[in-house]
């Protein structure tokens, strides 16, 4: 699912350099590196703006992330198990550790999404439903561009019959 979305990643870096990912931490204010990783992962997977002719023909939204928390967990290796656990643990222990790591990864990513929503860098266009991940629009451009990106996303969603 890799796309040529270097422009999206450039905009994530720009948002970071503008201080939009700063977070108080231990008396200091610093960029939250995990949140930046999450937003970068979303940007790498989402299609870039403006839409190509093929995106227009297929009604493919730009800057819409629909990969769910598990895709980010996989990209970041958050659910991988150390070899010691795999080789020395019983099947029950390995499965329990996998489940624990998945819960932790999901909680961290959901918390990152909440921060990104609060900062106005993502917007949930539609919720998760049975068999379908939520759709998060990346608001990494300027105000006018973000309005255009959102309108295009809604046009695509409506054309395909809704979220």
In total, how many beta strands?
A: 5
What percent strand? 5-15%
Structural class computed from helices and strand pairing: mainly alpha
- Low-confidence blocks of residues: none
Radius of gyration: 18 Å
The average pLDDT is 94
Q: Which percent bin holds the helix content? A: 55-70%
Give the N-to-C terminal Cα separation. Answer: 20 Å
Strand order of the largest sheet: 3-5-4
Q: Count of helices? A: 7
Can you walk through the features of this model?
The chain has 163 residues and is mainly alpha-helical. The chain has helices at 6-17, 33-45, 53-58, 68-76, 83-88, 91-118, 143-159, and strands spanning 22-25, 28-31, 64-65, 122-126, 135-138. A 3-stranded antiparallel sheet has the order 3-5-4, with helices on both faces. A hairpin with a 2-residue loop joins strand 1 and strand 2. Helix 4 (68-76) crosses helix 6 (91-118).
What's the arrangement of secondary structure elements?
Blueprint: H1 6-17, E1 22-25, E2 28-31, H2 33-45, H3 53-58, E3 64-65, H4 68-76, H5 83-88, H6 91-118, E4 122-126, E5 135-138, H7 143-159
Antiparallel strand pairs: 1-2, 3-5, 4-5
Helix pairs in contact: 1-2, 2-6, 4-6
Summarize it.
The chain has helices at residues 6-17, 33-45, 53-58, 68-76, 83-88, 91-118, 143-159, and strands spanning 22-25, 28-31, 64-65, 122-126, 135-138. The chain has 163 residues and is mainly alpha-helical.
Keywords, separated by commas or semicolons:
163 residues; mainly alpha; two-stranded antiparallel sheet; 7 helices; 56% helix; globular
